[in-house]
Amino acid sequence: MLNFMDTVEEAVAGIQDGSTVMIGGFGNAGQPFELIDALMDCGAKELTVVNNNAGQGDQGLALLIKEGRVRKMICSFPRQSDSWHFDAKYKAGEIELELVPQGNLAERIRAAGAGIGGFFTPTGYGTILAEGKETRIIDGRGQVFETPIHADVALIKALKADGKGNLVYRKTARNFGPIMAAAAKHTVVQVSEIVPVGGLDPENVVTPGIYVNSIVKVA
Amino acid sequence: MLNFMDTVEEAVAGIQDGSTVMIGGFGNAGQPFELIDALMDCGAKELTVVNNNAGQGDQGLALLIKEGRVRKMICSFPRQSDSWHFDAKYKAGEIELELVPQGNLAERIRAAGAGIGGFFTPTGYGTILAEGKETRIIDGRGQVFETPIHADVALIKALKADGKGNLVYRKTARNFGPIMAAAAKHTVVQVSEIVPVGGLDPENVVTPGIYVNSIVKVA
Amino acid sequence: MTVETSLQTAEKPLGRDELARLVARDIKPGSFVNLGIGQPTLVSNYLQPEQDITLHTENGMLGMGPEATGDQIDGDLINAGKIPVTELPGASYFHHADSFAMMRGGHLDICVLGAFQVSAAGDLANWHTGAPDAIPAVGGAMDLATGAKDVFVMMTLLTREGASKLVDTCTYPLTGVGCVTRVYTDMAVFLTGPNGVQVRETFGCTFEELQALVPVPLMPVAPEAAPAVEP
Amino acid sequence: MTVETSLQTAEKPLGRDELARLVARDIKPGSFVNLGIGQPTLVSNYLQPEQDITLHTENGMLGMGPEATGDQIDGDLINAGKIPVTELPGASYFHHADSFAMMRGGHLDICVLGAFQVSAAGDLANWHTGAPDAIPAVGGAMDLATGAKDVFVMMTLLTREGASKLVDTCTYPLTGVGCVTRVYTDMAVFLTGPNGVQVRETFGCTFEELQALVPVPLMPVAPEAAPAVEP
């Protein structure tokens, strides 16, 4: 069911303690900053967060981590020059890390949305990230069994939504948005513009409205 | 390497006896009729053909089957009111059939293009189409192991190509084109229009040119 | 067995269009729905604009409109039955893998399918008669049966020979296991699931007459599962 | 061992830019290429328009142009290193799963990566020092190493301490197994593969001097593997 919300606070109101929350974005591109701030304000804790990184600087996801609201990060690249809040929590043993190669992260999120129970991939075979995982040789190549990553909620950013919840993105800000929208039970989208039904060309819709639950316009 | 061909004959010239050929289209929408005719004329035989159906009436794929050029069909729905050439060959034991649920067909083609070694899906579990296949229970659901379908050549139809081989399609004629283009070693596309590089909006490209090898304009 | 008051009845069996109207009425507003080829397609005739139902067709479209006529006919715009259709405002197109991912990933609220047989446990048989000389063809049936949140079946209750199509165990090859949640027939609406088969409504027969025709134990519907809207 | 005539040499070790120029020259016209973060990014400075190389960035783009400057800078258009870049005519955008499918499905001709170590068998170690207190971070390195048709490594041959980074067996945690096909270093270009390590060119050293530095058996390049173009 699709709802248009007036505020980011309303849009994230359903997020509960212990939820798995996917957050879109790669670097600043496609990051739903305002929704992350609202998640901060809503007080939910014990979160599992799925994002490519583990927060940067002193804002957004980094702040959630600093405040001890994130129990576990599932990400591909937590260590950055300005990921000090994650670094500190990790070294203190106060946050769990599931490190996933970026392509496996994307494919596992995609698998969740597509109803795939698991898949074999050559990525990571023979490395420490495959330790403890099922492997098999397929067509002469070692492959690792990877499982879908589902989420309770996805927080993503798009450029425009129409009245049916169809979305289009902008340039490399598209990144994780379309696959996270499909992998979460409840998808919240912040957009720059809402257009009427019929305002997006059906050929160019990237995320069909079926994957979208709440939309909020952020100025 | 991308080539623009003057004729459909040139475009299919590399198809050899014993090749696996994916043919796009669902019903008439997206069927590359002219490329199929050229495949007929080029004489290649012992083909394995991947298509949703197994030919209709007395044209295109049905004719290839009638002439005994197809050793094996991989498809989801061979039996139609006008699939008499396939029906006759099948009943005579002169053609092999691998029947695949349509969603497994699409996902297996996608898996080939995406480098996935195989995946588990609930579709078909507990049915005769899962007989002999590996199964397991994942999250309480029975699932079947399915393998990628690769091809030597894909013959598909798109609306427009630009000078880099980027493609856009039209309405439900998009169907199998994008995933077959990625699953084949060599992809041949017939288009209605060729536009210069820069003539397609990068946000709206459906098949990036990396998946395209030969393009021929069909009037 | 005493029939509880929550069991609704009609005076005579329903025709195909009445049944389609009933299914259409039961679809919750805002739902995303796939209507199978054949009888289920009739449901689209009875969906009301205020229900705001979005139709999916597995060949790559959300927001499918009515069948195309005259100048509307466009060979590039067809449904899963290969019939020309129209596009509604707010539609979107996608390729086959994305379209089936939508279905298989559990995003469609309801799919409505025809059937040869449905078992008490909700097993569905609708793709293959099992005849030794039959050419098998499955299409998207298994994906639809397995992927939608709710699978509604529309069928006549009895075969031409008078045998019940609601059975203890399917004798035809299965399409999906335990997937059917409701069975709409000309004589009754059944709810199937782990708790056995409940009868929600009968048409032209009493509960006892229905039970005499059907070789699986029936229960009247639990009151909370009764339809919210009067037929 | 006698050095065959096909082995090319230069008078002194190559600088980073000279090495980038050499890699750029070796990329076949029409190729689709992913350049890793750091030193490999320099290669883009030496690609010639007539080579018609298309650059992929795994965060969702083909047809990436040079780094953006001034008014070109757009927060929505960045590369995998999160640096603002530009868009070339004929570009396309796609989401992360499609972008990694492109890489993992073997569609990229070449990816160029940095490395801590490469083994004689082409194993790559470039993501993790293995230090017990290090916070691990892998990004797309394993996908790039495993997915591209050819994986070229660019690195200095020796560590600051003078140890060869071309090794018999990697001591750092692996990124990928048997994936590297060429190693471009300041002192030599190596071809790695099932037939052992071949030396294509040396820079500022003889084959014998090189062999003395590297703890794996080296062979001069087979004539057919020599570069087609004079450096």
Write the layout of secondary structure elements.
The complex is a heterotetramer, with two copies of chain A (219 residues) and two copies of chain C (231 residues).
Chain A: E1 3-5, H1 8-11, E2 20-23, H2 33-42, E3 47-50, H3 60-66, E4 70-75, H4 84-91, E5 96-99, H5 102-114, E6 118-121, E7 135-138, E8 141-146, E9 151-162, E10 167-168, H6 177-183, E11 184-195, E12 214-217
Parallel strand pairs in A: 1-12, 2-3, 2-9, 3-4, 4-5, 9-11, 11-12
Antiparallel strand pairs in A: 6-8, 7-8, 9-10
Helix pairs in contact in A: 2-3, 3-4, 5-6
Chain C: E1 8-10, H1 16-26, E2 32-35, E3 54-57, E4 61-67, E5 85-93, H2 96-104, E6 110-113, E7 117-119, E8 124-125, H3 141-147, E9 150-155, E10 166-167, E11 180-185, E12 188-191, E13 197-203, H4 207-213, E14 218-220
Parallel strand pairs in C: 1-13, 2-3, 2-6, 6-9, 7-10, 9-11, 13-14
Antiparallel strand pairs in C: 3-4, 4-5, 7-8, 11-12, 12-13
Overview in brief:
The complex is a heterotetramer, with two copies of chain A (219 residues) and two copies of chain C (231 residues). By secondary structure, chain A is an alpha/beta fold.
Radius of gyration of chain A: 17 Å
* Strand segment count of chain A: 12
Q: Kindly state the mean pLDDT of chain A as a whole number?
A: 97
Measured between the Cα atoms of the first and last residue of chain A, the distance is: 24 Å
Oligomer: heterotetramer
Low-pLDDT residue intervals, each spanning 5 or more residues of chain A: none
Helix content of chain C: 10-25%
Number of helices of chain A: 6
Secondary-structure element string of chain A: EHEHEHEHEHEEEEEHEE
Task: Tell me the radius of gyration of chain C.
Answer: 18 Å
Give me the strand/helix succession of chain C: EHEEEEHEEEHEEEEEHE
